[in-house]
Write a structure and sequence with these properties.
The protein is an alpha/beta fold and 145 residues long. Helices cover 44% and strands 17% of the residues. Helix 1 packs across helix 4, helix 2 packs across helix 3 and helix 4 packs antiparallel against helix 5. The longest helix is centred in the middle third of the chain and has 15 residues. The protein starts with a strand and ends in a 22-residue tail after the last helix.
Length: 145
Amino acid sequence: MIGFILTGHGQFSNGLASAIDMVAGDQPAFQIVPFEGSQAATYGDDLRAAIFAMRAETDGVLVFVDLLGGTPFNQAMMISQDIADVEVVTGANLPMLIELLLTRGAGSTLAELADQAVTVGQTGIVHRRLEPIVVEDETDDEDGI
């Protein structure tokens, strides 16, 4: 099984993990590593330890981060150079995570799951709009009544 680690700024990973738990239940080999101001000094070490431990238990680790170029992304990328079979996907969102959590046991490789994450993440972003319902004024002013 491929392990998943979710990280991001502030309460990002906590919030998504809470939503995942509500929708899909408790998930094996899934862990969050929040990046919060009070823990900024140890964040890189904490993320490295989480990835290292997850990698020891799984066939690979897919790290989901919130923002391209942010500290969680940068740290995850540096760590992925040191530990084999670690991939990083940025722009994590709820549809992406739920679908991958529910399909990762189907024999997919780490690279396939990373590609699937990007596809699902992009298709999960849509703009929908309902047209306003216009109620016609039924009064007819032409008769003067």
